[in-house]
Specification:
CATH class: Alpha Beta
Strand content: 25-35%
CATH architecture: 3-Layer(aba) Sandwich
CATH topology: Rossmann fold
Number of strands: 8
Largest sheet: 6 strands, parallel
Shape: globular
Structural class: alpha/beta
Helix content: 25-40%
Number of helices: 5
Strand order of the largest sheet: 3-2-1-6-7-8
Order of helices and strands: EHHEHEEEHEHEE
Radius of gyration: 19 Å
Number of domains: 1
CATH superfamily: 5'-nuclease
Length: 182
């Protein structure tokens, strides 16, 4: 079965961070690319770039693993407030339309679509894919999952420790519990 994976990073990033965790994209890649009954025909990560942080190393790592990167810059808008002073607002650049266009562009190449996002805005896309005989699999955190997706998904999975970096265990004395033999 040919499978296409799309990851809405903004949807997942803040929830992972609120848990004190970071997604390990190497683990994600291997989990989906090592499935015996499926062939991963593409995997795209949709992310937002900002002036306040440099994502170039992260993007290079993702590309090395095999992901396609789709990036947008954060939109910065300067407005006048009531006192006629300049105020800066940041408008979130989301990728819902990009994800939809890329998915529809590849629709003839896959039998199964995997979306890592809980954004309910994708319900219509899920419905469209189901009507065209595609299998739909959703991966999300329970806290940012919109249950409207359930109506059109063949499977819904909640992200757990499987996709996180493992933190080293620390003993009560503050030493790393994994000894390094020299």
């Amino acid at each position: 079965m040919n499978t296409f994976l799309q990851i809405d990073l903004q949807n997942l990033f803040f929830e992972a961070r609120s848990r004190g965790q970071k997604l390990d994209f190497d683990k994600v890649w291997h989990f989906f690319s090592d499935r015996e009954t499926e062939i991963l025909i593409g995997a795209s990560v949709y992310l937002v770039r900002g002036e306040d942080f440099d994502s170039s190393k992260f993007e290079a790592k993702l590309e090395t693993l095999g992901y396609d990167i789709v990036a947008k810059n954060v939109i910065k808008i300067t407005k006048k407030d009531k006192a006629n002073k300049d105020t800066v607002e940041f408008q979130n650049s989301n990728h819902d339309v990009n994800i939809t266009i890329d998915c529809l562009d590849k629709i003839d190449k896959f039998n199964k679509w995997i979306l890592m996002s809980g954004d309910g805005d994708f319900a219509d896309l899920c419905k469209y894919l189901k009507q065209r005989g595609k299998r739909v699999e959703i991966w999300s955190f329970p806290e940012c999952y919109n249950s409207v997706l359930e109506m059109y998904a063949d499977k819904v999975h909640f992200i757990d420790d499987l996709f996180f970096y493992k933190k080293p265990k620390v003993s009560v004395f503050g030493f790393n519990s994994r000894r390094k033999d020299r």
